[in-house]
Amino acid sequence: MMEEIHRKYHEASALFPLLEGNEFEQLKADIAANGLLEPIWLHPDGSVLDGRNRHRACIETKIEPRFRIWSGDGSCMAFVISMNLHRRHLSETQRSIVANKIANMPTHRPSGKSANLPTSVSQPEAARMLNVSSRSIRSIAKIQREAPDLMLAMESGELTAHRATRIIKERQRDEEWARIQNTLQPTDEKNWPKSIELLTGDFTQIGPQLPAESFDLIITDPPYGEDNVYLYGVLAEQAARLLVPGGSLLAMAGQLCIPQTLNVMTPHLNYHWIISYDTPGGQSPQIWSRKVNSFWKPVLWFVKGEYKGGWHGDKVKSNVNDNDKRFHKWGQSESGIGKLVSEFASTGTSKVLDPFVGGGTVAVVSYRLRISFVGIDSSADAITTTRQRMLMEMENERS
Questions:
Q1: Cα–Cα dist 100/156, whole Å
Q2: Kind of pairing, strands 243-252 and 215-220?
Q3: Percentage above 90 pLDDT, the chain
Q4: How confident is the model at residue 372 (pLDDT cuts 50, 70, 90)?
Q5: Which residues contact 124 (CB under 8 A, 6 or more apart)?
Q6: What is the pLDDT of residue 105?
Q7: Longest dimension (CA), the chain
Q8: DSSP class of residue 290?
Q9: Domain containing 321 — which CATH number?
Q10: Are residues 274 and 335 in the same domain?
Q11: Same domain membership, residue 157 and residue 34
Q12: Are residues 285 and 344 in the same domain?
């Protein structure tokens, strides 16, 4: 009878995510056209144990449902899993969420049955039941604690656990940066290091005002893309004047425009090599136009005149998952940039220039290595951020 359709849902029925949107509409259309082919399973207490989606669809389409009562053998949790795991096309993240729900959840064994068996499911058991790793379950539990607002998107399949973890990390970094900004005091400026100079303005205007042959190394990460290729030509032209003889220019570049970039740089400096700047741990951008997941960045190495320095490897690797966008949307990691600067510049003797200072990674690394540094950026916000980041570094050093 239709008046009996409105029933309570058993706790175990919520292990698997509800169908939403187009999937649920398709289920309703199928039930409206063909009736309810698979019965709705009830717990002995009368609540819906399996078939929440079918139950909801019957209510909305006003189709008479068919019920069947679960026998009570074993655990109702295992029954729900067996009924849903293979007929639902769930991602690893979704299966891990289900496993996290059942880990340490009471098994709901009827009284008097299997009394000698455990009354809860352990995490390893849950992992085996859902064909996921215990590590995946722990990751879901951590996300649930730290960002419960992301769970719905993960259950629906819109968000992976990996991406949710990245979002949490980004949020934490933003919160830490906001906290740091609130604690910085203008009086900190009195201890500003003489070895670090920050200039606001267009490099094409400021560069010609800097003393010739005053830098041993220019290391920078200009904007990429076809519209910005000309910047590399300007950079190389200015570097030819600003570098000491034998000095190096290390410029990160996008793979798509390397031929054009080399064309505008080689009239001014000698091409020396391309260094692979590796970013391991899921930091790869997707280059849709070429169908490539890129796990490295080219660092174009040019030299003024004849190179007279020492030997270098042609691969630099940042720490795993160290992609740092706290201070600038195109920011690089301190671990990777630190290796580049320490490889090509010497403490106490070298002077480094970054004409596109961005979030100030090269500035901070140079300060730590006690290397003189000049940073330029056309964005006043970028210079302000770099200055605050430097003050933070100084404060951490004092403490």
A1: 15
A2: parallel
A3: 37
A4: very high
A5: 134
A6: 67
A7: 92
A8: T
A9: 3.40.50.150
A10: yes
A11: yes
A12: yes
Both tokens of 291, joined, read 């169908």
114 and 40, same structural domain? yes
- The pLDDT confidence band at residue 240, using thresholds 50, 70 and 90, is very high
Query: DSSP letters of 331-346?
Result: ---HHHHHHHHHHH--
Query: Is residue 41 assigned to a domain?
Result: yes
pLDDT of 374: 96
Instruction: Answer whether residue 220 shows pLDDT above 70.
Output: yes
Same domain, 268 and 384: yes
H or E element at residue 394? helix 380-398
- Considering the domain architecture, whether residues 201 and 162 belong to the same structural domain is answered as no
User: How many Å separate Cα 164 from the centre of its chain?
Assistant: 8
Q: Which pLDDT belongs to residue 376?
A: 96
- Confirm whether 67 is domain-assigned: yes
H/E run at residue 213 = none
> What's the token pair of residue 389?
């980041």
Q: Looking at the domain assignment, is residue 182 inside a domain?
A: no
Answer yes or no: are the C-beta atoms of 392 and 386 closer than 8 Å: no
Mean pLDDT of 148-171: 88
The total domain count for the chain is 2
Quick one: average pLDDT of 50-65? 87
> Pick the residue with more confidence: 330 or 310?
310
Pairing status of strand 296-303 against strand 270-278: antiparallel
Domain that holds residue 214: 193-398
Cα distance between residue 54 and residue 87, in whole Å: 13
Higher pLDDT, 113 or 54: 54
Cα–Cα distance between 273 and 294 in angstroms, integer? Answer: 19
Alpha helices in 105-247 (DSSP H): 123-130, 134-146, 151-155, 161-183, 203-206, 229-242
Q: Please check whether residue 185 lies inside any domain of the structure.
A: no
Task: Give the model confidence (pLDDT) of 257-310 as tens digits.
Answer: 999 999 999 999 999 999 999 887 755 667 778 888 888 889 999 999 999 888
What is the residue whose two structure tokens read 């660092």? 299
CA 397 to chain centre: 28
- pLDDT higher than 70, residue 54: yes
Neighbours of 266 (CB within 10 A): 13
In a shared domain, residues 166 and 197: no
Structure-model confidence comparison of residues 86 and 346, the more confident one: 346
Please tell me whether residue 271 adopts helix, strand or coil conformation: strand
- Give 52-83 as a DSSP string: HHHHHHHHHHTPPP-EEE----S-HHHHHHHH
One domain, residues 25 and 109: yes
